[in-house]
């Protein structure tokens, strides 16, 4: 799946409209600031809570926890001095993917996670091999760097299949079935994190499939 396909249709339409409007209304644009486009993390961060799951039954729920290094942009030197030039080239003119909540905190508040590729789940590694033009994950030899918000667009790939039988096998593989809010038969998820030390973080990625309660009864 191409990364562009991960953007909701409504956002793409809004982007096109904004482009057309700015070109035809240059005078208005000069008098008012142009709003920044939302980050990938902001678009895909969970838009649901426990209350919004009441109309649904929950299936295949599972979670994985990871430990990684994390750096603010002003901490790239001296720790990452050897890879900082490549990081600057990779992310040049690219929209920051967002913080843990998806928003862009700008400046030195922006963070990058560092993980050994062997610690990255297999499905994510395979996705990186397929998506040659993606600009959220900077792979350098056996290490990968990414903003926390970069997890959200491919969140289900970070979670292993639940041990609940064949009905859960591969349920997190199809990103077309993933959304940031509940829908019948869809996959949703969340990310939580805890700073565990100096430049160290533990984050947990949770995913589950939901079905409307009426639809679930029909299957019985």
Describe the structure.
Keywords: Signal. 23% of the residues lie in helices and 25% in strands. It is α+β, with helices and mostly antiparallel strands. It has one domain. The protein has a six-stranded antiparallel sheet with strand order 3-4-2-1-6-5. It is globular. The two termini are 33 Å apart.
Q: What level of helicity do the residues show?
A: 10-25%
Shape: globular
Structural class: alpha+beta
State the total count of DSSP E strands: 6
Give the N-to-C terminal Cα separation. Answer: 33 Å
Signal peptide: 1-18
Keywords: Signal
SSE arrangement:
Layout: H1 9-24, H2 26-31, H3 40-44, E1 56-72, H4 84-90, E2 111-116, H5 122-130, E3 137-140, E4 143-146, E5 187-197, E6 200-212, H6 213-219
Antiparallel strand pairs: 1-2, 1-6, 2-4, 3-4, 5-6
Give a short summary of the structure:
The protein has one domain (39-219).
Tags for this entry?
alpha+beta, six-stranded antiparallel beta sheet, 25% strand, 220 residues, signal
């Amino acid at each position: 799946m191409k990364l562009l396909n991960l953007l909701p249709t409504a956002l793409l339409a809004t982007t096109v409209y904004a482009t057309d409007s700015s070109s035809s209304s240059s005078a208005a644009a000069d008098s008012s600031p142009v709003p920044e486009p939302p980050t990938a993390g902001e678009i895909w961060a969970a838009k649901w809570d426990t209350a919004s799951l009441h109309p649904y039954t929950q299936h295949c729920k599972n979670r994985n926890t990871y430990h990684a290094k994390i750096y603010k942009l002003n901490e790239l030197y001296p720790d990452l001095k050897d890879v900082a030039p490549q990081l600057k080239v990779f992310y040049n003119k690219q929209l920051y993917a967002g913080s843990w909540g998806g928003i862009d905190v700008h400046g030195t508040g922006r963070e990058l996670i560092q993980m050994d590729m062997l610690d990255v789940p297999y499905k994510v590694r395979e996705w990186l091999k397929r998506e040659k033009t993606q600009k959220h994950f900077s792979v350098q030899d056996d290490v990968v760097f990414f903003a926390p918000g970069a997890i959200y667009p491919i969140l289900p790939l970070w979670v292993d299949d639940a041990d609940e039988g064949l009905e859960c096998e591969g349920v997190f593989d199809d990103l077309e079935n993933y959304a940031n809010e509940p829908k019948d038969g869809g996959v949703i998820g969340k990310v939580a994190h805890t700073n565990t030390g100096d430049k160290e973080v533990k984050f947990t990625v949770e995913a589950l499939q939901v079905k409307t309660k009426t639809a679930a009864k029909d299957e019985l």
